[in-house]
């Protein structure tokens, strides 16, 4: 499961650019700091690879693998 802490996000969009499943997109809303932040477009397609969390310079994304 992917969780985005929108208040830590600075809108760099690296997570969007590097997602292998292209299921993240930058939204039109701003966080409390004035930055646009990403949202998950299709949670079912997320493979929990962690690329978005790894590439995020602010540590705003967390991946938790769900138990089967």
Write a structural description.
With 68 residues, the chain is of the alpha+beta class. The protein has one domain: Alpha-Beta Plaits (2-Layer Sandwich), CATH 3.30.70.20. The chain is built from 2 helices and 4 strands; from the N terminus they run E-H-E-E-H-E. The chain has a two-stranded antiparallel ribbon with strand order 1-4. A two-stranded antiparallel sheet has the order 2-3. Strand 2 and strand 3 form a beta hairpin. The mean pLDDT is 95.
Gist?
With 68 residues, the chain is α+β, with helices and mostly antiparallel strands. It is 15% helix and 26% strand.
Q: What proportion of the residues form beta strands (DSSP E)?
A: 25-35%
Return the average pLDDT rounded to an integer. 95
Largest sheet: 2 strands, antiparallel
Total number of distinct structural domains: 1
CATH class: Alpha Beta
Low confidence ranges: none
In whole angstroms, the N-to-C terminal distance is 12 Å
Number of strands: 4
CATH fold-level name: Alpha-Beta Plaits
Q: What helical percentage do the residues reach?
A: 10-25%
Looking at the overall shape, the CATH architecture is 2-Layer Sandwich
Structural class of the helices, strands and pairings? alpha+beta
Taken in chain order, the helices and strands follow as EHEEHE
C-alpha geometry? globular
Neighbour order of strands in the largest sheet: 1-4
């Amino acid at each position: 499961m992917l969780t985005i802490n929108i208040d830590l996000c600075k809108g760099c969009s690296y997570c969007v650019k590097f997602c292998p499943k292209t299921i993240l997109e930058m939204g039109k809303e701003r966080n409390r700091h004035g930055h646009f932040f990403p949202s998950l477009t299709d949670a079912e397609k997320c493979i929990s690879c962690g690329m978005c969390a790894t590439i995020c310079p602010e540590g705003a994304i967390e991946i938790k693998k769900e138990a089967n």
